[in-house]
Automatic annotation (TrEMBL), chains A, B:
The keyword Magnesium applies. This is Polyprenyl synthetase family protein. The keyword Chaperone does not apply. It comes from Mucilaginibacter lutimaris. Its EC number is 2.5.1.-. Its cofactor is Mg(2+). Keywords: Magnesium, Metal-binding, Transferase.
Length: 324, 324
């Protein structure tokens, strides 16, 4: 099996080799710009990995892998407009560097370019692969819409939240793995199991992200601790805490959420203490563990040599057990 | 051959029958809303017409025809954001009724739904049809970008302008006709000729629109006369006039364009007089005629019974000879 890093650099080189027209410049420059911002290229690497695991031709899987990366960057370009985000990977976002209209239209073109790349598969796989791609794309859009709706909604349950992160971040992992597996000649059953693995791993990964934002070591994972608390982001932790807190703690949590001016450090400390009082960390970890186990169960059922399954287990472990 | 009106109502009924999920409401309500605004359903009707002309099964062509209509409405939803348009077909636009984010994301979903519908063709046509659809979509986006770029550019030539309207409005007619012809079992040559017909007819139609905006009878075509002049829209007439006017007329035209406050009736009268002084109407009509002839030439070369070609000629005549 090829190493993940090798697959990632294969993608990075292929992304760098993608060619777009010069004219109209306002349409294609932003596409080149966002694709050159880098990133781990994890989603397309997963597609190649899945193909490789089933002994498929990784080179043949390269255009669909690029499709996933171009699609992912289309969602980033449009999400950044919607989130009013000034920066992406430390650089100015497209809508800031150009304007909203440019970011809307260049994003639209990227979605179409995604289809063009995804269509570079064998004829006998074309319909199946595009069906998966369509479902993935719709899922991601639904997830983004739910994420926005949740921002202004005060009554989100854990099940709704899990469904949102499944759509927004996990289905694209599942879709990439499934497409890669099919290109690698996996049968429908194994490809679907690998997709299950990816979706559940994705949910577990996002839950871990929620936990790390509050309980992570900032030196280890390079993000400001408590950013989600500061912005009242509806994470697993906040939703669970709102469900569980009673009495003065409930009033106190509601008060911190309602404040428009506050000392950030103080807010993070106070909200974390409320989280601790109802053990949300433990519950989030248990939920994360449950999804990780679902992922491993799906993996165990796949008809692949033990060595290949171990490769996937090691990959998942590397993703999930980031040091706190 | 089926009558155009029958094909249009076939589409209208099928559009009304399209089903979208209830949840998330903010994602799917705007899609239902914009599709219910109506319109002539001309583009999808052309797809069905092309299929019918070659003796194909019109029912089988219905999903791809709907794909063209959904795609077209996706472009309207995003264009309306970019153009900051408050109204569409007399009703509030999606970004006004909801907000920009909703219009961006619902539009994205519509593009994917367009692909889903377009994929409902026979396996042996799938790749070809999607290639045409991709090229059409990219063309429309390029045309919209050029249209926006031209707004703030002072040095647009006629060739660039024709290229812009070809991309923005004509290629989708060509694409719809070509896909319909192929579903109707036309060979590649005839399908391409029909596409040529559609593209050239589309350019002629847009040029006619430019002419009618200034010289049309407002009672006959229901639009305010001179709207393009009032907004300094870069039409064939304005670009040609800027190319031709000399001396005081050139200064006068430049002055009217630069004014931010003015009497609309006065501006329309003054600019029209300058247009008349360099005969831009005659030149626009000649250009329109040249594209109409190109359309008819392509049509004449198609391997179809004379009766079917006459049907297309009548259709084109009905489209182009709107009474001034």
């Amino acid at each position: 099996m090829r190493k993940l890093e090798d697959l990632q650099s294969l993608i990075a080189n292929a992304v760098a080799d993608l060619k777009y027209p010069e004219y109209p410049a306002e349409l294609y420059e932003p596409i080149k710009y966002i694709l050159a911002l880098g990133g781990k290229r994890m989603r397309p690497a997963l597609l190649l990995m899945a193909c490789d695991l089933f002994g498929g031709d990784v080179e043949a899987a390269l255009p669909p892998a690029l499709a996933i990366e171009v699609f992912h960057n289309f969602t980033l370009m449009h999400d950044d407009i919607m989130d009013n985000a000034p920066k992406r990977r430390g650089k100015t976002t497209v809508h800031e560097k150009w304007n909203n209209n440019v970011a809307i239209l260049s994003g639209d073109v990227m979605l179409v370019e995604g289809y063009r790349l995804m269509m570079q598969v064998r004829n006998d796989l074309l319909r199946t692969v595009l069906d998966i791609f369509n479902d993935t794309a719709i899922g991601v859009c639904e997830g983004q819409q739910l994420d926005m709706t949740f921002e202004t909604s005060n009554n989100i349950g854990i099940a709704e939240y899990i469904n949102m992160i499944r759509l927004k971040t996990a289905v694209v992992l599942g879709g990439a793995l499934k497409i890669g597996a099919l290109i690698g000649e996996a049968d429908e059953k194994d490809a679907s199991l690998l997709s299950e693995f990816g979706i559940n791993l994705g949910i577990a990964f996002q839950l871990q992200d929620d936990i790390l934002d509050v309980y992570g070591n900032p030196e280890k994972f390079g993000k400001q601790v408590g950013g989600d608390i500061i912005s009242n982001k509806k994470t697993y932790l906040l939703i669970k805490a709102l469900e569980l807190v009673k009495g003065t703690d409930a009033e106190e949590l509601a008060r911190w959420i309602s404040l428009t001016t506050f000392d950030a450090t103080e807010k993070v400390a106070a909200v974390t203490e409320i989280y601790n009082s109802v053990n949300v960390r433990q519950q989030a970890e248990a939920e994360m563990q449950a999804y990780a186990e679902k992922a491993f169960e799906a993996l165990n059922s796949i008809n692949l040599p033990e060595e290949n399954k171990q490769y996937l287990r090691d990959f998942a472990d590397g993703l999930l057990v980031r040091e706190y």
